[in-house]
Amino acid sequence: MSEKPFPIDAFLKSPFPDGLISISPWDFGSFEPLTYIYFNIAFVIIAYPLYRIIGGFFNWEMDVKTPSNHFGDMMALVRYGFIVFVLGGYAKTFNWITILSFYIALFGFALLAELPFAKQSLVTWRNWSIKMWILIIVAVCAVLVMTGFHIYLAILLMNVNKFREKNDVYIAWYLGCLVIIPILMTFAFIAEQEQNTRFLTKFFLKVISIFKRNSQKQLPPTNENGSETQQQQTDTEAQAATTGTTSGAEPQPYNKKARVHLHHWQIFYSLAFFTRFNHPVSQVAGGITLGIYTQGIGAYGPDSYLEEY
Asked: How many domains does the structure of the chain reveal?
């Protein structure tokens, strides 16, 4: 019972300068160059081509990609991987447990996705079968259980952190980071509505028209050479160039509409930021979330949360 769940002296010995290293368990950002190299070798350089080769051999569902697509998707894994490595604390939690659970999740999720009833997306939820609903409910319950356990780990970490002031704030910051996800989803919803309805542009034009009406009441009389008329014409042309409208007209619709399409790689990539504890269960959870996120990009690419049609 005396064993500490988060030993503060169990860090890797790095050959790099100390200025490049930050692996305190209480830091929300951590980095260690050598571990980051291993991270990319295991989760990008080996994982991506291995998944494509095995998936192609067994004829799994995957998008056809050109060499430039493959390069772009691997670079996307590197970009997203750097962010989650630094902010997800993988400099201090990355080990063989994470790697093993990563590859089990990578190929296990691919096999699960090949089941006939599982060949669905979140946008087609109205057409899901009973088996698909059971699968989703089980997955959600598993995520909730792991969420509760990670909150427990955050509380344990605060108990270990006796030498810092305000150590009871950690749990607030940890859970507070969850707010980032709905904030981003809100901005995406605003972008979707603007593209589909132009509601922001309409509001902007309405405000501008109010100011223009007020200013026109105080306009001086037009001089003989018509400079006032010329100025109004210039203002109208500037408005059309800025908003895609003409004076007194509704804003022109965009050529394409947008809709929200939440992909599984985005869900598990978001969860990967919270598996940041030096505990075997958290390391397994980190490998699972990274594996499923990598499967999504490896099979289909980093599709956007907002898609046009």
From this structure: 1
3-state secondary structure of 258: strand
Whether 109 maps to a domain, the answer reads: yes
Query: Where in the chain does DSSP place strands (E)?
Result: 258-260, 306-308
**Exposure of 163 in the CB half-sphere (CA atoms within 13 A):** 2
In tens, the pLDDT along 141-177 reads 999 999 999 999 888 877 766 545 555 677 778 888 8
3-class SS of residue 188: helix
Closest listed residue to residue 272, CA positions, set 148, 167, 125, 146: 146
Instruction: Give yes or no for a contact between 259 and 306, defined as CB atoms under 8 angstroms apart.
Output: yes
| Any domain includes 144 | yes
The Cα 271–Cα 275 span in angstroms is: 7
Full domain range(s) for residue 83: 18-160+274-299
